[in-house]
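Sat 14:20. Reprocessing the chain from the morning session after the first attempt stalled halfway. Input below, unchanged.
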Amino acid sequence: MMNMFFLLREKLVEVLKAVTPLVLVACVLQFTLVQAPLALFLQFLAGSMLAVVGMVLLFMGIDFGILPMGKFVGAELPKKNSLTLIIAVAFALGFATTVAEPDVLVLAGQVEAASPGGISRQAIIYVIGIGLAILAAIAMVRIIGGWSMRYMLAAAYLIVLVLSLFAPTEFVPLAFDAGSVTTGVLSAPVMIALAIGLSSVLAGRSAVSDGFGLLGFASVGAIIAILIMGMLPS
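Finished this time. Tokens:
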């Protein structure tokens, strides 16, 4: 119980440090430049308070349960002696966390609103999820095989650059935004914890050099997937 209290206090301080500058800037703008209607400004303040509460609970949940479970799953997978199982779990977790990622949901909603009837919200979410999940699975195999992340990243971004030359113009910026939103508060801790857990039980592996990089590599999958989506016939 005491540990939970300390965790709550720690996360509250972290969130307040992150949110306070935004609130202060908005307040300065309100009283100097924009003068938004009072009801809208009060709505902003109320929403900021709700955001603080939600972020505190989210970060507590991640530290208290999601990170330990992710590391445990990653450490247990090699004991099953099944590469197929490792690939399947990495794909499933990559997809599940991505389609539930708040940043991905916001981006997909904005895309649908900006292109009425053109691009559906669900299509964007699932395409991003599948793209990230595929490269997350490849990245897990990379940890086992000890492949160089440097060359894998170079190859992945080379594919991105080539596809960018052929994909429709409107899909190129969307693709890169899709890559950035996959590194959010939900998918990032799960995938990093999974990679660290896996690398920690493999002989001769470093948690720093092998445990990190999975999310950065996997996020390229979202970019590639959106570019391919744009090139497919409607």
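The radius of gyration is 20 Å.
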